[in-house]
């Protein structure tokens, strides 16, 4: 009887998950990771665009209000120019391009300049940046002001607000909405006073007594 040899084979069956891992090359996993990162970046960019769109919409609404105020100012300019002091100062007059009200002359500039340059401009016109003295004057100015510098400022973030001519500032008449610490000059817009960077270019309101 001849010798017979028996050969045994070790068979190993892989699960589907193991087969899938073996079949997926390394570069495929890298592509999947890159795609995931790209999706995340796209989501972040979308959120940024939504925030920008929201700010733009708010700015557009503000601009619309300012445009309406400008149109009202142009339509009523002749009427305001003929207003005289209630106390009988009928002989008083203001230069051309100025608006007369209650014995004062106001100039709402169209050119945009820093607060300091606006201050110099008003001085060159024999006037000063607007100082609001009472509620009646504030109501009158609020009808016309649309991002205009006024004569209210401070020398630093820790300093108190004061008027250009040295008069003390009273919160009873006007509340300043503070934004950033470095913003030390005041803009008046649609009845709201806010602190802004003095170097930013805006229009201004000059004021002087009627002759």
Automatic annotation (TrEMBL):
Record-level GO BP terms: signal transduction
Domain C-type lectin: 101-207
GO MF annotation terms: carbohydrate binding; transmembrane signaling receptor activity
Composition bias, Basic and acidic residues: 11-20
Source domain of life: Eukaryota
Coiled coil ranges: 49-83
InterPro entries: C-type_lectin-like (IPR001304), C-type_lectin-like/link_sf (IPR016186), C-type_Lectin_Domain_Fam1 (IPR052309), CTDL_fold (IPR016187), NKR-like_CTLD (IPR033992)
Location within or outside the cell: Membrane
Signal peptide per UniProt: none
Keyword Plastid recorded: no
Region (Disordered): 1-26
Alphabetically ordered keywords of this record: Coiled coil, Disulfide bond, Glycoprotein, Lectin
Gene Ontology cellular component list: plasma membrane
Keyword Disulfide bond: yes
Bilayer topology term: Single-pass membrane protein
Record protein name field: C-type lectin domain-containing protein
